[in-house]
Amino acid sequence: MSLGEFLSNNYVMIYELIGLEILLLVGAHISFEMKCKTLIAASLLFMELICYTTERWTQSLEVYSIMRPLLTAALYSIYPLIIITLMQITTTNMSRRNFWLLMIPELISVPLFFSSQWTHLVFVINYPNNYGGGPLADLPYWLFTFYVVIFLIHNFIYLKHSTRMNKIIAAYITIGPLLGAFGFLLFKVDKDYSSLFTSGILLYFAYIYIYMAKIDPLTGLLNRQSFYQDIENNAREITGVVSIDMNDLKYLNDSFGHQAGDDALKTVAGIFKENSGRNTFVYRIGGDEFMILYLNSKEEEISGDIKTIRAAMDKTEYVCAYGYAMVTKEQDLSEAIRISDQLMYSDKAALKKIRNLNAMVASRE
């Protein structure tokens, strides 16, 4: 096959891969780690394309070629690696230990694939150029299926606290290419499906880029724009709101520098996120102001979460003021937000009064 034929037959995929590389260069909202992993996925896809195209070309040869069994083994090895890399793109919090545990089936299978031409365990290319299956002929399909199942479970766990719309979008982007590829494997259709994964990665990258625009870059919480959008989209489901204000942020910035203030904001944001319970969205509205929206939650859940947050905050050097209000038939969402803010400012004033009294007592002693 000539270079011109290769380029013309795979123009769309190559065009998409180049486009992905360009997006990686200009993706300001995307972390360096995610860019690296996306680059690895794109490289694996391009490698798969080369291997598949070359392997198909060797099938047309009328004489035996060692290239075909080696390329077949390479293809069987690359497919699981693509799934593993996609799994790491969708979430960057996989520990090194879990990664190597995940790699165990792949590491066991790769030597079997590459030695199969001589052991005949998985496959063998018979003279002159015919493919034959061995006792483990289904190993590539079972290996791929295993990683698909792990991938789906992994993403379900990762997205369990996300909105319904985000779950639908992520499911469409991630499951679509997998179903297509799995169908080809299940029915043993000799077709290259790297283009499916390329399109899926492009869609997911675009989705992540849009989603990151809704995230506060410092704390990782949702930002003010998301707050207004979610109020509009989930108005019927919101049953309670919590207003939070962090005390002394200006003092920290002025006395110890902005890094100290940033560290404080990240610490308190982590506490809000970890202790706000299910069916909640946590926002940094701006500066030292935060909001939590509760969906289909009861008042005892909200008051309980605030107690838990206060207890966690007491273990740090930071202090926050809180207020909350419920959405009822008599009190709509806008009124609940107003009351929640009012109660928070009252709490802030009370905390300031207590601090001043303590300072006065300390000075007299």
What does this structure look like?
This protein has 365 residues and is α+β, with helices and mostly antiparallel strands. It has two domains: 3-212, Rhopdopsin 7-helix transmembrane proteins (Up-down Bundle); 224-364, Alpha-Beta Plaits (2-Layer Sandwich). The protein contains 13 helices and six strands. The protein has helices spanning 3-9, 11-26, 32-59, 67-90, 96-119, 139-158, 164-186, 194-212, 224-233, 249-256, 258-275, 299-314, 333-364, and strands at 123-126, 130-133, 238-246, 280-286, 289-295, 320-326. The strands form two sheets. The chain has a four-stranded antiparallel β-sheet with strand order 4-5-3-6, with helices on both faces. Strands 1-2 form a two-stranded antiparallel ribbon. The longest helix has 32 residues, at 333-364. The protein is elongated and about 95 Å long. The termini are far apart.
User: Roughly what is the average pLDDT, rounded to an integer?
Assistant: 85
User: Beta fraction of the residues?
Assistant: 5-15%
Name the shape in a single word: elongated
Briefly, what CATH class of the largest domain?
Mainly Alpha
Q: Low-confidence parts lasting 5 or more residues at pLDDT below 50?
A: none
* CATH fold assignment of the largest domain: Rhopdopsin 7-helix transmembrane proteins
Helix content: 55-70%
Which CATH architecture of the largest domain is right? Up-down Bundle
What kind of sheet is the major sheet? 4 strands, antiparallel
**Termini distance?**
91 Å
How large is the radius of gyration?
28 Å
